[in-house]
Fold this sequence. Notes:
By secondary structure, the protein is an alpha/beta fold. It is 31% helix and 28% strand. The strands form six sheets. It has a 31-stranded mixed sheet that branches. The chain has a three-stranded parallel sheet with strand order 30-33-36, with no helix packed on it. A two-stranded antiparallel ribbon has the order 5-6. The longest helix is centred in the last third of the chain and has 27 residues, at 570-596.
Amino acid sequence: MGNRQLTQEEINRLEKQGCRAEDWGKITVKPDFNSANIRNVSFAGEVAIGNCRGVQEVKPGCFKNNGLYDCYVRNCTIADNVYIANVNNLINYTIEEDVIIENVSDLIVTGETSFGNGTELEILNEGGGRILPIYDRLTAQIAYMIVVYKHDANLQEALKKLISDYVAERKARCGIISRGVRIYNSNIIRNVKIGKKATISGALLLEDGTIAGSEVDPVYVGEGVIAKHFIIQTGARVESSAMLDKCFIGQGTRLGKQFSAENSAFFANCEGFHGEAVSVFAGPYTVTHHKSNFLIAGMFSFFNAGSGTNQSNHMYKLGPLHQGVLDRGSKTGSDSYLVWPARIGIFSVVIGKHFTHLDTSELPFSYLIESEGKSFLKPAMNLFTSGTRRDIIKWQARDRRKDNDRLDLINFDFFSPYIVEKAMRAIEVLRGLDESAQPDQEFIKYQGAYIRKAALKVAIQNYELVPKIFYGNLILRKVGSVDNLAWDKVKNIFVGESDNSAENWEDLSGMFATRAEIDRISSDLQENRLNSIADLECALREIHQKYEEKAWQFGLNLLFKRFETDALTSEQVCLLLNEWQESVVHFNDLVLKDAEKEFAQCSRIGYGIDGDTTVRDLDFTAVRGTFVDNKFVIELKNESERAIKEAKRICAALRK
């Protein structure tokens, strides 16, 4: 039902209620409009108003009549079931149903704007060489392709065009405050598009941005927030005086407690509190919680920054051109420091201050420790720590995204082809170092760090567990749930041809993909087979969904090479399963040995403060529990038992 003109009687009543208009003829209302709920409002330009009936629960237990009170409204369309009060300037907005706006200074659109879409971030390298244009559906994978593959000019041109076309579609002269939005006690909101169910409470300044909407996973922007040139995706919370300039905030991300960031992107499930970030590419699950932390010009994912974490890129003469990468799963200890450029391998731990340009990317799961000004590397040491194992479990459990449209494609598989290739390459590197070392040599220098020669063989043995566990996991996922398992039913699964396209894996900031798959995406973009952002999203999602298929082919490639065949026998499969269960048990035993340190005598210092050793132990047990009763410990032991049983069960069935 369309709007109508105001009657003279309604105009007279509105004027008696303190309302004014530049031209009452430009004010239209719903047929069942209730003029009683419009008070002390000044209208300018064209304004369309809903019925102003019903009530809203403005605050818990506080119900108020819908309508407009004490406002200046210009060129707005206001739907039914809306409560707007004490707004100094409400200009150029379409306001949908079930919206509450109370105590806001300015809520305005000043002209044509793209609402933060198209903002260019000087990311990873604040010198500007890796510009990332952001938009409201940006994913970690697309951002990775834009930022990392700068060497491919044709790909960059194709991506730039897709994003430019998308941004052009987002431009408008009128903003939208979508259904269910709540805006309270805020100062200036300028050129901001606000999505469904979002809440803004106490923000100081929001300018040139998009706040995404979701019925099931709305955005919250809280007190004291200052944000300019931004995108905030569904499920994110930005609060407690966070300060953002040219930032992208991904789904499920939390920023607050005076955290400040500029020219940075935070993808799914990141957390930033207290500290500072500049030109940071924060892939999924990047976490920094301390006031003393300063992340600059770096790329991270599944990363945890210890207190006092810092990097430096000040050793330059032609401008701030350095950058650094801490690959998936890395951590830094308290007061850690790295001088850029540097690259740290997956699931590594950085302890101390390092003043050389390190590259440990080919030696994953390492400890990088500083001693007397030198960097010492302990390869594979972090593979068996309880912290690493706990991280693997917690990430998937802590995926906060409730939106069914999960934009970032995240693969949580630990023993993946990507990690297997890293481990196998590490074995090659360490063997080469061992062979080239002198018999009496104590340390070997590698990529800026020192490795103790005596540790090489043990590290190689540890890395060799990775493919063994990978093979067994694959076989279990493939045949473990087959009913009435017998070799005749599954033998064709282990027959085939090697396929090189299933090798050379990359981690696109959370998603595993082969180089061949990435090259195909690049080719399709450049040859106009992918013509929109939606097409690109679908192509990447298809790769993500085919992960298991590609991982299986990758495993077959390695096994065909190992056994020099193109068809595995049941005996060979059983050999692999036996190796798997032995490796799982050994792996878990080492993790348990590390976990047991948490219950050692030295861990009990400070417990039972006013008592003797008996009281100390009782106090420790009351707070921390016991090793044997620990949930993590019990699960690992059960996993080892299940591995033994599964290997026996499947092999017995295959040998029938």
